[in-house]
Amino acid sequence: MSEIAVSEILGRYPADRTSSLAVLGDIQAEYKYLPREALEETAKWLHMHLSEIYQIATFFKAFSLTPKGDHIIKVCLGTACYVGGGSRILAAMEKALGIKAGSTTPDYKFSLEAIRCMGACALGPVVAVDDHVHGQMSDTKAANLISSLRQEEVPTEPKEA
User: Fold this and answer.
1) Domains within the chain, CATH numbers bracketed
2) H or E element in which residue 71 lies
3) pTM exceeding 0.90
């Protein structure tokens, strides 16, 4: 963790607790999680107890206390996506990555998340990679998408089988 980056982030905001969400959001964007050292610095900067910062960090699902992968893959399991095969797609992603939903690959290249709804029901089933939505997904397309990501060729549309 770079102390310079945390200091730069903190310097963008007033040293006041009203900045806590914005500060944590920027730290999360920089590191893809909230390192303990960054939370300690934030608590000092905002004149808050470390426990208050942890309460915020653990309350909001957007924050993570564990490192995330370079690519964050979200599989929608909302009603429309689930009915369209969302659970099969999640299983295909888990198999292709060798991890379960909620985990990160040992090389920190991928994190896999199952989420409840992306609000893209007409495109379902849906998978998002780094917030780029891939609609009308199938388990075969999911495996092809992972293969492309491993080669760092992030397609705008998943390849057909």
Assistant:
1) 3-59 (1.10.10), 71-150 (3.40.30.10)
2) strand 71-76
3) no
